[in-house]
Amino acid sequence: MTADLTRTDSDAPPRAGNLPLATAGLLIGMLLSVLDQTVVAIALPDIAADLGGLDAIGWIVTSYVLASTATGALYGRLSDRFGRRPVFVAAVAVFVAGSALCGLAQTIPQLIAARTAQGIGAGALFVLPTIALSELYPRRLRSRVQGFTGGVFALASVGGPLAGGAITDAWGWRWIFYVNLPLGLLSVALTAYALRLPRPGGDGRVDLPGAALIAGAIVALLLVAEWGGRTHAWTSGVILALAAACAVLLGLFVWWERRAANPLLPPRLLTGPVLRVALPATALLGALLGGSIVYLPTYLQAAYGMGATQAGLALNPYVLTFMAVSSLAGARVGGRFKPYLIAGSVIAVLGFALLSRLEPGSPYVLLAVGIGVLGAGFGLLMQNLVVLAQNAASPADLAATTSATVSVRGLGLSLGVAIFGNLLTRQLQGRAPGPAATAAAIPDVLFWGVPAAAVLVALMVLLPSPRG
Question: What does the DSSP 8-state code read for residue 253?
């Protein structure tokens, strides 16, 4: 049966006990999950100076990303079984406990272990709010509400390094973790008090074998992207073994899901014409988001001699246009997703094209225009793709569909960071090291966003048109 992109709001969802407070609690959790992907990077030199272990310092970031990405798909099914509120509260509690342990760590291995625990909790903190908000509000308001979550993502992605630098300078690196404690406890208090959703009624067992298989495949894939061509040669035994493990685990996952009584990712989801396009498009969008926003602050520092705080502030054109367009489009899109998604992907092509033409001496205003255009394109795309997928799913599959969509985007984001990092390493080969070489290389790397975004345009054109 073909999914309808414009289902009406005939079955209004149940309301929360206190809708504004429930929404605030969910958004605070979402904010924390994204902030802790980016806030730590700026403090790594201080952490290394304090704890040592410079050779393993990158795992402070990598362990969190691996844990949160690998566990994200599981939380939707857990919340089907045990309820949205208890699973979200438990996940925030794990995140808060991990944050406290991060702040108390005395060695790099201790910090990496605590970051892994933090990431396990964080895997729920974007997935579950996205599910719960779609159930709290009528379907006609989904795009508007999810537009705000896109704004939270943009603000936290760019504001993370800015906040991390300010906190580290003022109070020391341990406080970038300690500040999570009051915010996390506030999120727990608000959702425990205000969030009222009926348990979806999933009585089957949680698909733990499927979760383990897909988590293993994701970890192997991310390690291939992170290590390949940098830590290990692409033809090394380590990379080939990881690639083979990823392929085997993914094949076993597909085999198992066809036989599981309550699969993590029901195969029927992939038979619909909408999700067959929306999921790969979401992964590609995640890669473009990660590959661009992570390296733009580096360009600002290298090309203009800005500090971390200045670079964060200089990205305001991206954040403001992303938030404004995401909110406005969410209010106006209704059920007509396709024109907005095509427009967003075309604008993203233009944004990457403008950024690829930058030179070390280019005036800042040209960069501001480029990142503003990119922010507008991403603002039209990010959460509208999530709502498109949600609207194409039956109520029984809402959690699984949302978990898959958000997790695929997170996986794409992590892969984008790694792939663009590999491209940057290649561009820097043979150049004298220094800010000038970095400033010259990053626009060449961003050029690869043009053909990638063009593929996104093609995918959006392939979306089935809504039925009249």
Answer: H
Query: Cβ distance 116 to 59 under 8 Å?
Result: no
Query: For residue 408, what are the CA distances in angstroms to 67, 236, 416, 445?
Result: 14, 27, 12, 23
Distance CA(443)–CA(399), nearest Å, equals 39
* pLDDT attached to residue 335: 64
What is the Cα–Cα distance from 147 to 383, expressed in whole angstroms? 6
Q: What is the CA radius of gyration of the chain?
A: 21
Half-sphere exposure of 192 (CA within 13 A, CB side): 11
Tokens for 67, please give them: 């844990």
Model pTM greater than 0.70?
yes
Ordered DSSP codes for 155-171:
HHHHHHHHHHHHHHHHH
Task: Quickly list DSSP for 2-64.
Answer: PPPTT--SSSPPPPPSSHHHHHHHHHHHHHHHHHHHHTTGGGHHHHHHHH--GGGTTHHHHHH
Q: What is the DSSP string of 356-381?
A: HT--TT--HHHHHHHHHHHHHHHHHH
User: pLDDT tens-digit profile of 451-464?
Assistant: 999 999 999 999 88
Does residue 201 come out as left (phi exceeding 0), alpha (psi in the -120 to 50 range) or beta? Answer: left
State the Cα–Cα distance between residues 193 and 195, nearest whole angstrom.
6
What is the rounded distance in angstroms from the CA atom of residue 72 to the CA atom of residue 55? 28
pLDDT at 58: 73
